[in-house]
Structure formats: structure tokens, C-alpha cells
Amino acid sequence: MAFYAPGQLLSPNLSPSLSSRTRKSTNATPSASSSAIKCDLSSTPNPQSFKSLSKTLAFSTATGFLFHLSSIPSLISPTCNGTGAGNGDFSGGGDGGGGGWNGGHGDEGFWSRLFSPAAIAKEEESPSQEWDSHGLPANIVVQLSKLSGFKKYKVSDIQFFDRRRWTTVGTEDSFFEMVSLRSGGIYTKAHLQKELESLATCGMFEKVDLEGKTKPDGTLGITISFTESTWQSADTFRCINVGLLPQSKQIEMDADMTDKEKFEYFKSQEKDYRRRIERARPCLLPLPVHREVLGMLREQGKVSARMLQRIRDRVQKWYHDEGYACAQVVNFGNLNTKEVVCEVVEGDITQLVIQFQDKLGNVCEGNTQLAVVRRELPKQLRQGHVFNIEAGKQALRNINSLALFFNIEVNPRPDEKNEGGIIVEIKLKELEQKTAEVSTEWSIVPGRQGRPTLASIQPSGTVSFEHRNLKGLNRSILGSVTTSNFLNPQDDLAFKLEYVHPHLDGVYDPRNCTFRASCFNSRKLSPVFIGGPGVDEVPPIWVDRAGFKANITESFTRQSKFTYGVVMEEITTRDESSHISPNGQRQLPSGGISTDGPPTTLSGTGVDRLAFAQANITRDNTKFVNGAVVGERDVFQLDQGLGIGSKFPFFNRHQLTLTRFIQLKEVEEGAGKPPPPVLVFHGHYGGCVGDLPSYDAFTLGGPYSVRGYNMGELGACRNILELAGELRIPVKNTHVYAFVEHGNDLGSSKDVKGNPTEFYRRMGHGSSYGVGVKLGLVRAEYAVDHNAGTGAVFFRFGERF
């Protein structure tokens, strides 16, 4: 005897999807975009989609069993808690970042809606639908055959009665998911007969009956009495992947067959099923879950329908927990043998389609070459692998990092030509290739009696332009011009023009070498020439840099990189009046300004020209655990003077930074889960030999050196050592932390030309400690200056490490 039922894993019109939408931006870097990953669990059923449910999914002989698929977990059931129109977000703090997953759905989950007959029946019902009273005396039992075929009965309650246990089972029993009837529903006699027929042929029950009990208010109470199906005990368990296997055609058995013909029929069916098992592939289910299921079978004794449902739930839970959202248990076979065979359709990817769309969603020809997109896709999302939701999310992040698209969707849908197969569609909407932007701003400062007033009537701002994705290979040209006075921009005009050429060795080269060339002009305040504690205000020295830079970056992983190149620049030191200043300045008691300070340049003229090679290697294996950074990060940077330029400078400047983020407690990972406490250790060493210009000396003090001090307040030196420790404790949606830091010039301040540390009365070393709290992108800190023994509150942007 064989039990058979139709079903289908996915309807062509019902498919989960992942999407990422990015705000348009003129910036070229991926960090300038806001990204989100959405899981769209919407559905648009039509008669054809439900008609397609009649396609065969599995077939079993030797007393097989294919059960009713209902109440299946939604795409990511552990974290689906969204509401509304049927979508949720995977998004992260910061521009272009990513944090965590938070899927959602509306009233009914995707799988539940597709497979549950209760969900389908719910659609057919209408709260305002009229119904007929049974017209019979109250509290009498009515057989299904005695009901009128012309009336619409309202069902007030439904009960399941287990004949074998001789008790009524509760709504938590797994058998309730087999029934499409619901309390308060309105049904005809034909509908109730169809429900009984469905229950009788599903294989769950040896015997099942349906009867009604009249209620005084004219409604019916339904009682379904059953005897659960059982099979002989089993001592082995096998799980196979039947996806992509051609479905066997069910041959109906003629009622007039002789015993010999019936025997041959069952023998033929059993042979076909064994051949099917041999062609099937091993499933992904790990050995520990196999052993757990085998323990369930041995503990139970006889195999029962409830036991098979428990096995189904356990197997599917593992698949869905691991991200295999399309995996589904479709059948159990070999039930009257010593072995239970669990057939799973895992969701094998049969095809990967990349599609470009215009702003209206119409298919169009894209400018980006497909190879640029394909290289960003993880292997788990390619043909021959099983679809995994984590691979889809990784694909979204990778494609979004290209900064070429403002909308990205990853949609798995069923392959109509290959049963159980999945076609992964990637839909892309490209950003405009050419963009330009002008931004202006005015500074507001307190005026008389505290009233706000403009610091200057002269506007400042930036003009920027970008031509991205040249030749469809993600090459780009970027430019920007910034000034603090648009009316007279030559005073402090800063500009940058950059060309970026990724995939230098070809699109499919695993190193992904990127060539960058830029010419620039910038101005920054030098922290080398500032006063120490108690020193009168020191006139600032500005450092202008103009030149050319070219480098090549090789990516070992997405976070670990090696960059090498050459820099040629002209450095000019200026005072606050923009005049060239060859020496540092100080304020005299009389109010005048003396220019007898340390020399600001290597040439002594206030203008240096030099060329040097530069290399940087970064090893970064940090990751986010519920929003907290955990892992290791090492950075080594080297600047080597080439003896070209003013006074033929030849020098070697090197830095090594080691940072460890130690997770102090194991936590469950997932959206909404609390982050772990983290202990951070940080060390930074820098050294220099040769002709070091003063403006390139290492500086001690500041938010990214030793907290509690201003930039450069502790000194300027040729060798530097910084040590820091920080303990981060999560509190609600943020974290508080305590820190201690120390910086030391290792006695090298005197070797800097003119000894600016001594000239401006700085200590050359210092320590600090304090506490802080993270408020979004802002760090609010109270730090104690150990040298002076005083504390102060600081507000800083970004991360210290």
C-alpha cells in the first residue's frame, strides 16, 4: 500500500526576496550610501499558481508516507517579527554599513500561506458571509451524511478525539495543522465532505470520521475522531536530497487485479522507489542531527504519524536555522521496514540570472559589465549549490560595496523546468554615471547678548563632480574643490582630482588590484607647533600640501589589503595670515609675535619638495557580533624617502599598530540579541631614521592618541609608543566603557629639529583614564589628565580604535 499526496515547494508567483536600496550620492565611496536589505514575503496568488500545486513532489512505496505541509516556518522564522506590508530590514548604522537581520511578515507567513489549507480556507471565507441555522434540536449528534446540501453551516468549535488514547487532544497537537476548518468559519456539506476525504487519504490516519453536534444558537460543533497511523519500529534513519529528481508517474491500481497482479504491482513500485533512492544525493543534514532523530525513533518504538511530524519539524528547523530557506521535507519512505527515509527538497540552484532595470522597473540593457557583478557573488549563490539566505545577504553587501547601484534585489524563485530547483534572480538599478554637486554653508556664532550671528558673510562650500563606471568596469574620475570663501577662493583653495581603476589584472583576478592616481592640494593645522599646558596661546602654523600620488592596492580579503605607491609633493608652512613661515612662532609678553621658533621645514625656507615611496599592509579579521567589534587588526605602514627634493631627503618612517578586541562572554547571535562585553588592547609604535621634516614628526595627545589631551599637547617626537586598554559593557542599545591610556616619546623629542616639544613647554609623555558612553556616532567621555590631575568632558565623533 502507498500513500500519495500532491504538493509543490514554491509557487511561481510566490517567492521570497532580498533587496538593497541606496540613496543617490555624488560621492564615489560606498560609505556614502545608505543601504538596507529587505526580505519581501509578499504573494500574489492566482488560479494558475494554486493549480500548479497539483504537481507531484514525491512518491513513496513500500508503505510510504507524504504528509500535509502546513504551518511551515517563514523564511527566517527565528527573527521574523515585522508587521505591515510584509517586509523587514537588514540594515546597519553608519553610511553603507551593515549590522544585523530583522525580517518580517504580515498576518500570515509565506510558507504557511502557501502550504496551509487553513490559510487558503481563510481567504475563501468572509466575515460578513451569511449562514443558515441547522434547524435541529440542540445538543444532538448529527452524521455528516445527514446534513443538508443546501445550507451554509457556521462552525462554532472543532475538537479532535483520539480513539487509541480515548481522549480529546488540545489545539497544540500537531494534527490540528492538518485541518483547514476553523472556528467561526462557514462551510457547506460538500466542503466538510472534501475535508474528511482529504484527511482520510493523507496517510496520517488509519481511520477518521467527522460528525457534528448541534448548538442552541444554530451553529455546529465539529468533532473529528481518528486512529493514528503506525508502522513497525525502525532502527536506522536516512536523509536524502530528492531535489531535481524527475518525478515518477503514479500508476493507478486496477480494482479488478488478481492477487498475483497486485503482488507484481507492489514489487514494481518498490523497485522504482529503490532506484529513486539510489539516484538521490546525500542531504546536508549533519551527523549530530541524524543521531538525534535516530534516538527519537528508538525511544518511541513504533513509528507513528506524530513521530514523523516531530522528525519533519526537527529536520526543517536545522535547515531554516542554517539559512536554507527553501529546504522542505516532502516525504517519508520505507516505513514498514527497519529504515525510515526522509526525503528533502533542499533548494538546489539551477540558474543565476542578472537583470538590469530602469527606474520604472522595466528590463533594460545595463552599462555595467556582468563580470564585474559576478565576481562579487559568493560561491554558495552559484549554480550547483543549495540556496542559502546568508549567501544572498552577502551578495547584497558585496554588490552594494561597488557603489554602482541604488537598488539591488536577490530573488530566489522556483524553476518550472526542474522540479525542486531554484532560479536566483539579481535585479539591479544603476546610479547615474555623471553627477555634480554644489554645497555652501555659513558658520553661526554667538553675537552680542548671546544672539546668534554669522561668523562671516562670506560663504564656504564644496563643488564636486564624478564620472563613474567608465566602460562598465567600475572605473571612475572624481573631483572636488573646497574653499572657505567662495567670493575670494584663492585664499585657501583646496582641490582633489582622482582616477580609480579597479581590476588592474583583469576582472577575475582574485587579488583585485586597484590603481589610484590623484593630484591634490590641502591645508591642515599642524599639531607640532602648539603650546603645552600653561603656555600662552601659540600662533598656529598651517601646512599646505600640493602634489601627486599614485598607488596600487591588492586585496587579500575584503578587510586585509596591501597598498604600495609613490608620493611627490610640495609642502609649504604658513602663518594665520597665509604668509610663508619658515619658523615656529610664539607670543611675546608685550603682545607681539616672535618668529624664533623651531624650523618648520627641512630646507629652512618654509617650502619643501620631496618624493617618497609608501607602503601599507593591513591584516584585519574583525567581525561584528550583534553590533560589537570582535577580532584582531594589525597595520604596518612604511614611508621611504628617495633622496629626491629639498636637501635630498633620505629617511625611513615606520609605524606598527596592533589592536585586539577580546570577547569576554559567549552570546547568541541574531537580530535584537545583546552584544557581548569586549576588552580592547591597543598598541602603537612609530619610529624614524634619517632626514625627518618637523611637520612629519609623530605627535602625542588627542582623541586618537592619548585621550584627555589636545592634539599634540604632549609633544612631537621621532619615536613614539602608545598603549591603551578599554572595557566595553553593553547597556540597552549602546555601551559604556572605561579606558586607560599612556603615550611616551621614548626620549626622542630632542632629536626633532629645533626641539618643538621643549620650546613649547610640553612634557613628552602623559597618561589618562576615564569613562565614556557611545551615543550614536558620538563618544561622550570624561577623561582625567594624569599630568595635571584634572578632568574634563569631551565629545568626539567616530571610534577610537
Automatic annotation (TrEMBL):
Organism: Tetracentron sinense (Spur-leaf)
Biased composition (Low complexity): 14-36
Region feature (Disordered): 14-43, 573-598
GO biological process: chloroplast organization; intracellular protein transport; protein import into chloroplast stroma; protein targeting to chloroplast
Keyword terms, alphabetized: Chloroplast, Membrane, Plastid, Plastid outer membrane, Protein transport, Transit peptide, Transmembrane, Transmembrane beta strand, Transport
Domain of life from the UniProt record: Eukaryota
Main location group: plastid
Alphabetized Gene3D superfamilies for the sequence: membrane protein fhac, membrane protein fhac: a member of the omp85/tpsb transporter family
The family this protein is said to belong to: Belongs to the TOC75 family.
Molecular-function GO terms, alphabetical: protein-transporting ATPase activity
Keyword Nucleus: no
GO CC list: chloroplast outer membrane
The protein, known as: Bacterial surface antigen (D15) domain-containing protein
Localisation: Plastid, Chloroplast outer membrane
Membrane topology: Multi-pass membrane protein
Record's compositionally biased regions (Polar residues): 579-588
Domain Toc75-like POTRA: 137-228, 349-430
Every Bacterial surface antigen (D15) domain range: 469-801
